[in-house]
Amino acid sequence: MKKILLTIGIFAVFFNSCVKDDFLDEDLKNIISADNLYLNYSGFQAGLNGMYALMLLEKGNTPNNSNYVHDVITMSGTDVACDGLWSGWGTSTGINLYDGRFTPEDGNLLNTWSWIWRVVNAANTLINRAEEPSVDWQGANEADNIKKKNEVIGEARCVRAWAYRHLVNLWNEVPLVLEESTGTIIDELRFPATRADIEAQMEADWLFASENLPSVAAVPGKVSSAVANHYLAELYLVWGDNGKAEQYANKVITSGDYQLVTERYGVEKDQPGTPFTDMFINGNINRNQGNTEVLWAWQREYQVNGGESGNSTERRMKVFAYWMWPIDGVSLAVTEGRGGRSLFGFMITKWSIDNFGVGDDRGGYYGLRKFYIIEEGDNLGDTDFSVGDTLWMDWSQPEQGGITRKWPSVTKFDWAPEGNLAIGWTVKETPYIRLADTYLLLAEALMKQERYGDAAEALNVVRRRANAPDISAGDVDIDFILDERARELLMEEHRRYTLIRTGKYVERSNAFNARAAGNITDQYKYMPIPQEIIDENPDFPQTIGWR
Question: Which of 86, 374, 474, 538 has its CA 20 to 30 A from that of 310?
């Protein structure tokens, strides 16, 4: 298929892919092609870093739109999120309203499609070239050479399966490409593979990673066997193999390498806060910073060479734009304590705000910003307010997209560097998979085996950390588990994928998203193939529902 098989050469991103000094301090000045990069173990490490840098773009903007982030279509238009301030953006609004402004011609959709295929090709290049017998793996002996080779392939295969997870959840059936692209059209890959065949390859890739990677990555930002096992648990839930889902979730949970964060820690442990919210504070994200829960953290660092590659626009997109207009007559200044400058590209739904129980830390003072305290430097205008007074958000009515002017948002993405509060992106690490998510997958696997008491206990482990009350076996069903996932993973998980996996996308999106209500049907479970792909490959079938 022409569009997805375009070569990306040596992926220019390699030259800008360093994320941390210890992650990427490679001398790349003389590297000009794949042929002289993949000669030894050091070259493959540079290639892996380039692959990881590509992946970071999930949370970053697209080439043609600084106000769009790829994971919009994984969250917005579901029970937990809808389009926010910029409701005129076709993609964000279209996947809630399906009113004609989201079509196969959507440019953001094409950008997301192309980005994922670039990751696939990056992984395929590493996997294919690692099999060259001339590679110097720089090991101490032959056994060490084999170990290093398999770890490189394991990382690349884990990421390839990760990329196909995006593709099958967004487009259902796509080509299954396992070879490095050279820019030629390969006729046998013009048509989609079945989803079953793609998922079988994903399983094989994650199983290889599970067997050949360490449980804890030696370098922050890399995948590990724990990441592979987590995704295997999810895949087996998709297949209805609930016993295997339980088995692989427990591989992570009982490994002894990861524990839920249940005590205060880190750079703000002596300031007011909660164990849950500590995990999202800059300086607290990685294991070497005290985060025992994070399975995979994506790496960035402000004003470090290469550390700003793949900058995140999550705060820009997911946090209320408190500074943009007066709130009850008061104009608030952009501050570090308020999380920096945001634009509110898409927003949490009223249901997801009300979903938190009283006393639940995840929806409490430090987890969900429901008000702002007036500070020195704010413009009080002609109001009777004083410094120290509270300006409350208003979620009494359902979400209304772009006309919403006082709305809560999560604090997970707060970040602004001192001296540059107006910076438009976020340059801090991101907790990408947490052990709490694995517990929730375990609860789902147990519930589907009708072991409701065991499922309740798995849920309670997560709930207790948040000071939420225990539940009993009689409370457990798939909707409660989805409610709990919304409480724990709000604006983190790829919610569309979860709802599709559980068969709840249409029901819950219509029930709990006022913007989407009545608009979501089975027709829209999957995205349309970008029209440019269809135009260049007329025989390639459009997604069912978009033909």
Answer: 86
Which of these, 524, 543, 488, 480, lies nearest to 77 by C-alpha position?
524
By C-alpha distance, which of 433, 437, 441 is closest to 244?
Answer: 441
Instruction: Find out whether 244 and 210 touch, Cβ atoms under 8 Å.
Output: no
Q: How far apart are CA 250 and CA 260, in angstroms?
A: 14
Average pLDDT of the chain, as a whole number: 87
CA-to-CA distance for 275 and 256, rounded, in angstroms?
Answer: 20
Q: How confident is the model at residue 437 (pLDDT cuts 50, 70, 90)?
A: very high
Which 3 state secondary structure label does DSSP give 61?
A: strand
48 three-state secondary structure: helix
Residue pLDDT, tens place only, 15-45: 333 333 333 333 434 444 778 899 999 999 9
Residue 12 has pLDDT above 70, yes or no: no
Q: What would the two tokens of residue 232 be?
A: 């295997």
1 close to 190: Cβ distance less than 8 angstroms: yes
- Rounded to the nearest 10 degrees, the angle between the axes of helix 142-171 and helix 225-239 is 40
For 91-122, the pLDDT digits (tens) are: 777 888 887 778 899 888 888 999 999 999 99
User: Tell me, what amino acid is at 429?
Assistant: E
Question: What contacts 13, CB < 8 A, 6 or more positions away?
Answer: 50, 53, 54, 309
